[in-house]
Amino acid sequence: MKKIPFVTRERLEEICKEYPTPFHIYDEAGIRATARAVNEAFAWNPGFKEYFAVKATPTPGILKILKEEGCGADCSSLTELLLSERCGITGTDVMFSSNETPAEEYVKAAELGAIINLDDITHIDFLEQTIGYIPETICCRYNPGGVYQLGESNEGFQVMDNPGDAKYGMTRAQLFEAFRTLKAKGAKRFGIHAFLASNTISNDYYPALAGQLFELAVELERETGADICFINLSGGVGVDYRPEQPKNDIYAIGAGVREQFERVLTPAGMGDVAIFTEMGRFMLAPHGHLVTRAIHEKHIYKEYIGVDACAANLMRPAIYGAYHHITVMGKEDAPCDHRYDVVGSLCENCDKFAVDRMLPEIERGDLLVIHDTGAHGFSMGYNYNGRLRSAELLLQEDGGVELMRRAETVEDYFATLVW
Ligand SMILES: *Cc1c(COP(=O)(O)O)cnc(C)c1O
Predict the structure, then answer these.
(1) Contact assessment for residue 177 and residue 121, using Cβ atoms and an 8 Å cutoff
(2) Ligand 1: distance of its center to the CA of 81 in Å?
(3) How far does the centroid of ligand 1 lie from the alpha carbon of residue 53, in Å?
(4) I need a labelling partner for 339 at 20 to 30 A (CA). Which of 153, 218, 232, 298 fits?
């Protein structure tokens, strides 16, 4: 589908007077609409909850909107736990899905009353020694091993790899043993979690995963006597970064999971199991733009457009070769008859937002919108070459603009240095 920015050129030029480029801007109306669609698609399951993957967009202004829409937070570090706490997201509204977890993080998660998702069987003892007990509600992460079969993008593999090569989760045998041990140590309510593939463009990913986990849950409950209360399908639902890609249909996905639920869990007498998700990308990616300005034009062996953003603001193209669509503002209907590399200023040749991209003729001063940067965009930013993180703005439902995070300054960069 044609990608249309959620903000006009005129409005952006106005915004730029107050907040110079580059910046990330997020669309409140779109975020709320997606959250509502997700909740509606899974409304058949009374216990359903989306725990937004905080790492995708760790910005309080965003977490508060999602909290208002009924979402919890999926955290995987101490900072993310503290961020959720400061947004008023605590208790079982927090899922703590981490790996190689430092002890202090389990302490904080337990203090918040978060649901702890154990990445490995050895973490049972580690957790007990760290916090002094085993929580009554506990979750274990499963890794089925082998090869993921659902037709996957290269990029998805770079993020997740095949289950058999991924560092996450427990084997099937370990999962059975873990449930027995946890039960003996006093756990009362159990959950299973698995994450098999990233950025899937298939309405079948969640239903296929759910089918596997539901069958496993029935066996686990029968063999270990553990009371399985929830199944966490984690993240991995993707977005159409390319205009020609199909969109995931969250209603079809919800219905597909329901079908598996009614095939496997309901007949087994487990119809009260809650479904949890931990989507990041699907919730936020389409609702963010990286806005940047063309500042240079260079003709050598290829045609380059230099912009004022760089990979430090959006790393995905540099590290995965990820495609992000670009709209040249004000030239939406002009013919795409120029072939450009659109590049940032890092002294790294991978700092290219687009390679051999057909675009309308770009002039210095043109505003460019880089699409689908709302998740894993700003959050993956870094300070290489002394580049600073940009501001994050919210385009509110009434058209107003709110500053959610100011741009970093050189003083911020210097603040950790010891002279
Ligand atoms: C990254 C991550 C997610 C979110 O993944 P998306 O692909 O953004 O949906 C969810 N859960 C865990 C444990 C993760 O590490």
Answers:
(1) yes
(2) 15
(3) 6
(4) 153
Does the residue 313 lie in any domain?
A: yes
Distance 363 CA to ligand 1 centre (A): 38
Domain assignment present for 402: yes
CA–centroid distance, residue 88 to ligand 1 (Å) = 21
> Quick one: pLDDT at residue 150?
55
Q: Which residue has the tokens 């991924």?
A: 166
User: How far is the C-alpha of 57 from the C-alpha of 28, rounded, in Å?
Assistant: 13
Residue 207: which domain range?
28-282
Residue 78, judged by CB atoms within 10 A of its CB (0-12, 13-18, 19+), counts as middle
3 lies in a domain?
no
Would you say 59 and 404 are in contact if contact means Cβ atoms under 8 Å apart?
yes
Using most ligand atoms within 8 A of CB, pick from 50, 54, 55, 168 the residue to mutate for ligand 1: 55
Query: Of 282, 309, 330, which marks where a domain is finished?
Result: 282
CATH, residue 16 = 2.40.37.10
pTM for this prediction: 0.96
Index of the ligand 1 atom closest to the CA of residue 279: 9
Counting from 1 in the atom list of ligand 1, the atom nearest the Cα of 278 is: 10
Q: Does 4 map to a domain? A: no
Q: What is the pLDDT of residues 279-312, one digit of tens each?
A: 999 999 999 999 999 999 999 999 999 999 999 9
Tally the domains of the chain.
2
CB atoms within 10 A of CB 203: 19
